[in-house]
Design goal:
By secondary structure, the protein is of the alpha/beta class. It is built from eleven helices and nine strands. The longest helix has 21 residues. The N and C termini lie far apart (56 Å).
Length: 319
C-alpha cells in the first residue's frame, strides 16, 4: 500500500507470538480494513513473532512488517508515526483486540473527519481466571462522560472525567490521532520510558481542540500476567524510577501549559491522587526512593482529605 490512506494502525510487537493472531484477525474481520494500513513493527522479538507477522504480511497487501533492534514501545511507536501513510493513527497493542463490527465506525470516521482525535471505550478480557487484581469493569469506559456521541475539547474531557468520574484514562489505545496534529505539536513518545502512556496522553488531551467521542467498547484490553501493569517480577525498581520521572515531569508540564488556568488545580489534584496510589502500591521507599518524593508538592496539590492523610504517612515511612 504505497498510496496515502485514511487510517494507519501501528502495532508494536515484542514476543507476542501467542496473542498476535487474535489481534490481527479481529482487525482483518472489520469491514473496510483492506483500505487501512496496518504496520507491524517487530521490536527485536526473540520468539516466532516475526514469522507470524511475515505470514500475515504475505497474505494481506495492506499489512507491512518492519523489523528493528529492541528499543521499547516508545521508539517503536515513534517509528510507526514516521512511517505511517494514514491521516489518522491508531496504536494497537499486539496482545489486545478490537470488536470488528464497532471498529468499522472508526474507519468510516477517518474518511472525512478533521478532528484532532477520536476517543472510544474498552472492555476487559482476562487472560487467566485467577488474576487477583481485577480491574473496575468500567474503568476503561470513560465513566463520567455522557454516553452519547459528540465532540469536545481535550480540556473539557479531562475536566468532566475528573469532576464526574474516576479521572481521565492515560492509555494510548483508547483513541485514534490525526498524524499532522501529533507532528505539529511535537507529540511523540519519550524513548526508553516505561509507563510512556502516562506522560503522553495528558499532553495530547491538553493540546487537542477537537475530540470526537464514540461511547462504544470498541477495544478489547487483555489483562495478563507478565505485562507492565501486571508484572511477574518482584524487583520493581525500574518501574519506580520511571514513575518518579513521569509524575515529576507532569507537574512541571502543568506548571508551564496551565499557568493561570482554573483547570490546573483539579488536574494537579487528580495527578496527585494517581501518584499517591502508585507510591503506596509499589512502595517506593522499599527501593530507596523515599527522599525523592516531593512531599511538599504532594501536600500542596492534594484536594481530598484521604490524600492529605496519605501524604502525612509518607513523612513517616518514606525517608
Amino acid at each position: 500500500m504505497e498510496e496515502a490512506t485514511n487510517l494507519s494502525i501501528i502495532i508494536p510487537i515484542y514476543n507476542a507470538e501467542k496473542y498476535l493472531p487474535a489481534c490481527l484477525d479481529s482487525l482483518l474481520e472489520t469491514k473496510g480494513i483492506k483500505d487501512t494500513e496496518i504496520l507491524l513493527i517487530d521490536d527485536g522479538s526473540s520468539d516466532s513473532s516475526a514469522s507470524v507477522a511475515g505470514k500475515y504480511e504475505k497474505e494481506n497487501p495492506n499489512i507491512r512488517v518492519i523489523r528493528k533492534e529492541n528499543e521499547g514501545p516508545s521508539a517503536t511507536r515513534n517509528l510507526g508515526v514516521r512511517e505511517a501513510r494514514g491521516k489518522y493513527i491508531f496504536f494497537c497493542d499486539a496482545d489486545d483486540m478490537v470488536v470488528p463490527v464497532l471498529f468499522e465506525r472508526v474507519i468510516k470516521l477517518s474518511e472525512g473527519s478533521a478532528e484532532d482525535m477520536f476517543m472510544w471505550d474498552s472492555e476487559i478480557v482476562y487472560d487467566m481466571k485467577d488474576l487477583l487484581a481485577k480491574k473496575d469493569e468500567e474503568y476503561f469506559a470513560h465513566y463520567g462522560l455522557p454516553k452519547k456521541e459528540q465532540t469536545y475539547s481535550g480540556k473539557e474531557i479531562m475536566e468532566i472525567l475528573i469532576r464526574n468520574g474516576k479521572g481521565f484514562i492515560a492509555t494510548v489505545w483508547l483513541g485514534a490521532y490525526r498524524r499532522d496534529f501529533l507532528l505539529g505539536n511535537d507529540l511523540l513518545f519519550e524513548d526508553g520510558l516505561i509507563y510512556e502512556d502516562e506522560l503522553w496522553v495528558p499532553k495530547v488531551l491538553l493540546a487537542a481542540k477537537t475530540v470526537h467521542y464514540l461511547p462504544k467498547k470498541i477495544y478489547r484490553y487483555r489483562v495478563r500476567r507478565g505485562s507492565i501493569t501486571n508484572p511477574d517480577k518482584k524487583d520493581l525498581k525500574k518501574n519506580v524510577e520511571a514513575l518518579l520521572y513521569v509524575y515529576t515531569s507532569l507537574y512541571d508540564y502543568y506548571d508551564r501549559v496551565l499557568a493561570g488556568d482554573p483547570l490546573k488545580e483539579i488536574i494537579e489534584g487528580n495527578l496527585t491522587k494517581r501518584y499517591l496510589h502508585m507510591i503506596y502500591k509499589l512502595r517506593f521507599w522499599k527501593y530507596g526512593y523515599g527522599k525523592k518524593i516531593d512531599k511538599k508538592r504532594l501536600w500542596k496539590t492534594s484536594r481530598r482529605l484521604r490524600d492529605k492523610v496519605l501524604v502525612l504517612g509518607l513523612y513517616v515511612i518514606a525517608h
